[in-house]
Every structure is written in structure tokens, then in C-alpha cells.
Design goal:
- The longest helix has 21 residues.
- By secondary structure, the chain is mostly helical.
- It has a domain of 115 residues.
- Helices cover 50% and strands 0% of the residues.
């Protein structure tokens, strides 16, 4: 991995699936069980893991153990844009917060160290988009971050990203109007109906939300 390239991209080493399929373990669309369903977690995390494994090989560091943790700390201490954003995320999952003991960035809201670490990670996105990071890749990063620490977000936000993740994993992203409509359905507590849909477009075409005004289609 060329770490001298500014803002090396992430999630582009592993091929993306071409369609959304159900997980054989949890029955949800693959990825939606993240991170409690192991197959869903492995399916999603492989996009991050292959980048981390490439960095381990480039640095001649073995997987697991103290050397890997030292590399994780090196990545987190490095300047913004030196490593792929996926490696920053993976490094955070290997390091424990010295204040609260949780995975770095996932602790309780009152943990200042976790908050600082979580906020710092997004400097990559601000500087690297749109040339080094696509909208889909940014959405993938947000989804994984939210789902690894659901207690740090409102329930409706967690539900929205959980619903979207299977489609983000195959390279799709909701258009602005689709995102607005799906969010309205989530706020209306129609998660179960949304979870039965097999595309972002289908989710956005659900019958209008009753409590919204302006017409039967919910606009």
C-alpha cells in the first residue's frame, strides 16, 4: 500500500456484490444485522479488512498481537490523509479508549476522549471528498460508525442507517428525494414495512405517511 499518496482511497480493493441477498444466519438482508450478526458483520467489514491487511503487509506487521496494536496507534497518530480512511476506522476498533475502556470512539456520550476521537476521524472526509472519497463511501463510513455505537445516536438515525446498509454495500446511494421520504417513514415508525423492501427505490415508494400533509403520496 502506497502510504505516500495523499488520501489513498478505501473500500476499493474488495469487489462489491451486484445484488442484495438475505443473510443465511439472521434472515435480514446481508449487512443489516451488523454488528450483532457475525456473518453480516464479516460481510460488511471485509471492505475495511482488506485495506487493513494490505497495510499490515506493507508495514511487515503480523495480524493480531502487540505489533498490530502499535500500528493501529501509529495510524491514529498520523497526519490526516496519510492512510486510507478504512484503516483509521479499523485502527479505532483495535484501540481501547484510555478513559472509558470502550472501543475508541464508541464509549458513552460523557466520555470526552471518545468524542474527540470520533470527531477527528471525519477530517479525512472533509479534506478527501469528492476526489478521494465518493458519496457512497462516505455513507458507508457513517453507517458503520453509527451501527458500532448505536447508543450515541437517536433511534431513528440508527434505524435509517441499518435499513440503508445492505444497499450501500453493493454501491448504491439514495437520491436526495429518496432519502427524505425514507427518513419520513422511519420517523413514522414504519421500520418493519421498510425492512421488507428490496431496494432503496421501493422503500421510497411506500404509500404516503398519514401524518404528513400535502397529498396522498406524503409530499
Amino acid at each position: 500500500m502506497a502510504v505516500d499518496q495523499p488520501f489513498p482511497p478505501g473500500t476499493r480493493r474488495a469487489p462489491r456484490p451486484t445484488e442484495v441477498l438475505p443473510c443465511a444466519a439472521c434472515g435480514e438482508l446481508a449487512g443489516r444485522g451488523y454488528p450483532t450478526c457475525r456473518p453480516c458483520t464479516e460481510f460488511a467489514d471485509r471492505l475495511w479488512l482488506v485495506d487493513w491487511q494490505a497495510l499490515l503487509a506493507a508495514e511487515q506487521v503480523g495480524a493480531e498481537g502487540a505489533d498490530e496494536r502499535r500500528l493501529a496507534e501509529q495510524v491514529l497518530a498520523g497526519e490526516v490523509g496519510r492512510y486510507p480512511w478504512t484503516c483509521t476506522d479499523w485502527a479505532m476498533s483495535l484501540v481501547r479508549c484510555p478513559a472509558c475502556g470502550a472501543e475508541l470512539g464508541t464509549g458513552v456520550m460523557s466520555c470526552l476522549r471518545c468524542r474527540i476521537a470520533d470527531e477527528a476521524r471525519w477530517a479525512w472526509d472533509h479534506a478527501g471528498r469528492p476526489v478521494r472519497m465518493t458519496g457512497n463511501e462516505h455513507a458507508l463510513r457513517v453507517a458503520r460508525t453509527v451501527l458500532r455505537a448505536p447508543h450515541r445516536q437517536r433511534e431513528t438515525i440508527v434505524h435509517g442507517w441499518r435499513l440503508a446498509l445492505p444497499f450501500l454495500l453493493i454501491g448504491e446511494s439514495p437520491r436526495a428525494e429518496q432519502a427524505r421520504r425514507i427518513r419520513a417513514y422511519v420517523l413514522a415508525k414504519r421500520y418493519e414495512e421498510l425492512a421488507e423492501c428490496h431496494s432503496l427505490a421501493e422503500m421510497a415508494r411506500l404509500p404516503g405517511v398519514p401524518w404528513r400533509t400535502g397529498g396522498p403520496d406524503g409530499r
